[in-house]
């Protein structure tokens, strides 16, 4: 469940300035700030494993991999999220040091407080991003990764992986990995 941090309605610039000095991160949805909850150690380990995995497999292909502290702007919306991990080829500029808008892969590691948000709200918002090809949702307490893939016709397809030896193939990124590489 999301928690609004105050009744104040923020501009995007006020939000960015707030994040520089705030003791905790907040996501931005239509002028309101929503406090990011802390995460369990297993969530952090899984996100770290995915960051390392994607860095190893994709950096040499010109991709940038970010984890936790860089925001993603939702296309055509006044919304900014902190994915657990995301991958982009977006060119780095002075204007996009804190916020990216062209991810090709986004990963969220679910927690008790983020499950509905990750599976419903963020799915709806992330799939509006034209550059996005893959959205992975990882369940930390059981072996389950849900992979949403944008097909050639723009429609989204879902595959669930549940066995440690299952291979996830992200063909357009030329990436293949097993679930046992993700879970500690």
Write up what this structure looks like.
The chain is α+β, with helices and mostly antiparallel strands. It has helices spanning 12-21, 41-58, 115-126; strands at 3-4, 26-29, 32-35, 64-67, 71-73, 79-81, 85-88, 99-100, 103-109, 134-139, 144-150, 156-161, 167-170, 175-178. The protein has one domain (39-181): tt1808, chain A, CATH 3.90.1570.10. The chain has three helices and 14 strands. Strands 1-3-2-6-5-8 form a six-stranded mixed beta sheet, with helices on one face. It is globular, with a radius of gyration of 16 Å.
How would you summarize what this structure contains?
This protein has 184 residues and is of the alpha+beta class. The protein has a single domain (39-181), classed as tt1808, chain A.
Proper CATH architecture: Alpha-Beta Complex
What is the CATH T-level topology?
Answer: tt1808, chain A
Q: Work out the strand percent.
A: 25-35%
H/E topology pattern:
EHEEHEEEEEEHEEEEE
Give the number of DSSP strands.
14
Q: What are the segments in which pLDDT stays under 50 over at least 5 consecutive residues?
A: none
CATH class: Alpha Beta
Count of DSSP H/I helices: 3
Average predicted confidence as pLDDT: 92
The total number of structural domains is: 1
- Spatial order of strands in the largest sheet: 1-3-2-6-5-8
**Distance linking N and C termini:** 26 Å
Radius of gyration: 16 Å
Q: Structural class per helix/strand content?
A: alpha+beta
Given the C-alpha coordinates, what overall shape results? globular
CATH H-level superfamily title: tt1808, chain A
